[in-house]
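Exam revision sheet. Question 4 asks you to relate a sequence to its structure. Input first:
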Amino acid sequence: MKQVVITNNPKTAEYIERQYKEQYGDTEAAHIELVRCVSREELYIRVRDYIHRHWKLQNHAMYGNIQLYKQPYRSMWLTEGDTLDIASLRLWEHAMDLASRSCLPNYSEKVLEDFQALDFSLFSSIVT
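Answer key, structure tokens:
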């Protein structure tokens, strides 16, 4: 089964690369693709595009108890399917709507590092 991790979190990207290189030699052998995004907006668009191409969310679009418009980092795990997963699409579109309701606050580097750690912790709990 093909899998993809789409993230704008450097901690998650480093973990995926390290974890799968140690186990398989590279991420291709694990049938997992890593997509790094430079912004939260790019991440939301990329995930939506994958869902439209029949990929299914494997973690919840709104995990963690943080208002989405305040969360600068997201790490999403999807698996390839053969039909459009309406539940994934609805959930993701709802998350996109919530995230777009306000601009991200201007966080300090320390706060951004805390958000990276939080996102990574929530994400890694589902893949380990």
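Marking note for examiners. The mean pLDDT is 90.
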